[in-house]
Sequence to fold (84 residues):
Amino acid sequence: MYKIKVEVKGEVVDEFESSGKNTILHDAIFGDVDLSYSCQSGICEMCHCVIEGEIDEEVESIVDGMSLTCKSKAKSDLILKFDR
Fold:
């Protein structure tokens, strides 16, 4: 299991675990962690953030080095960094 920390504007606001088998967003939802999302398919881009750690992405990173949590799976402990 990987530990995932959610950081908003530099402050850790939540944590959850991921086996790495499901997407980060999926594990957050089932871990009762409130991450922004709308479509879960990568189209809306609401779930994008800077991710520190190793991930397996189904799609390329989007704007400015940010990744989609709905298309990424954990491959190590992670920090998800949001500005909003």
Q: What stands out?
A: Helices lie at 24-30. The radius of gyration is 11 Å. The chain is about 10% helix and 40% strand. The CA atoms of residues 72 and 80 lie 11 Å apart.
